[in-house]
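Hi everyone, sorry if this is the wrong subforum. Our group has a chain we'd like a structural model of before ordering constructs, and none of us has done structure prediction before. Sequence below.
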Amino acid sequence: MPANNLAWTPPMEERLLQLLDKGLSYLDVAKIMSREFTIRLSKNACIGKGRRMQVALRMPARKGSACRKRNARKNREGRSRQQSGRRNSPRKRRVERKNQQHRQSLKHRAQPNKGRDLTLLQLLPTSCRWPNGNSPNVTFCGADKADGSSYCLKHALIASPGFGRER
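Answer:
Right subforum, don't worry. Here is the predicted structure as tokens:
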């Protein structure tokens, strides 16, 4: 029977609590209960029932568990790499460079605009149409438009970050 049509019986609930009290993982509990009750139980079905029964989701890791040993080994290796002064991988350098470029573009966006806060009726054909404020008091940037855009250069870069690049 699929786990989504499962009706938990009181003996199943008791067995779930017994197995969890022994310190077994939810995966192990699901395997054991599937064999004992001749049904298909998933790990997530056991977790869900455990939560509804207000049982702790995770049991503390057992001493000497493989996961704890693996994490300790990774931490030691990470420290030794840092201490040896090893350089970042090409992928990390590429990501850092991209982040730096993004920060620089944000600085450009934060620069004060030389707009004039024009109303709709004051806009000229050469005025930037970037809206400022909320209705009913909407004004527009009013700075000179960039070529090929309805906005000044600052707002054109915000609206489409690739503005001005050749394709």
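For your construct planning: The helical segments are 10-21, 26-37, 43-52, 66-83, 90-110, 153-159. The mean pLDDT is 78.
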